[in-house]
Amino acid sequence: MKTHDLMIVGCGPAGCAAALYAAREELDFVVLSKDLGGYANYVPDVESYLGMHYVSGYGLVSAFREHLKDYKVNVCEGCEVRKIEKKKDVFIATTSSGEYSARTVIVATGRRFRKLGVPGEDAYFEKGISYCAVCDGPVFRNKTVAVVGGGRAGLLSTMFLLPIARKIYLLEQGGQLGGTPKMRRAMKDKKVTTLLNTKVLEIRGDKLANQLVIETKGKRSTLPVGGIFIEIGYEPNTDFLPPEVKLNGRREIVINKDNESSLSGLFAAGDVTDVQEKQILVSAGEGAKSLLSALCYFEENCK
Length: 303
Hints:
2 domains, seven-stranded mixed β-sheet, five-stranded parallel β-sheet
């Protein structure tokens, strides 16, 4: 097994930027990722990426892909990293496509949609259940749907669904909605019925999910729907990391100003870290910075 100078895990905006800089520095590196672009693919409108006046998330990722091709960066797409461990001075990654080895690592695996964890959720995924209204909303045109989650993500999804769905139930476990005043005002649309203090207990259906079992202020009932959007936020993709890597209470990688983790030789960038701002432009900058820090580490410790 060849030992590379660097292994980049994940290829969203942070991973793409790190890979571009690594190619320019002529490092021997490998990029391992389930997909190119990650969550950025699902962002409908990007209006704050410098130099791009307006572009969809998918369009921006397509531009990233073409830029990487200019430097002949080969991304091992469809390669899921299941475990990373450090043996002496070398990192070993166990993946769905075999094992890879490198002297330094940049983790840029981003985040994933958070699940409810109730019966029926896994069974009906993509069978009436979606975690992305922007991606799947048009499939449920003129149907009665439920949006689970009254925070920013849930309110944005509800706003997106307003011209699509016939009726929308907005379910929030707490006693009030989150988001901005503008978002909350949009929830007063006649299509929207807001159910506060409401917990989802189970998802039922036949071939497709068509019913939510809910509890509102201690009273249990069922809610018939034609589609369910679970919008309760995100969680970082850090399950594969070794225990030496310090995580915060949200299981994000704790990094210093140079993108170093608590494990020597392992750097991190983007939404998977404890950097507060989860933005595409911020992630790209952090990815470039993590590569420059990893390069300094490699030159001082690995030659």
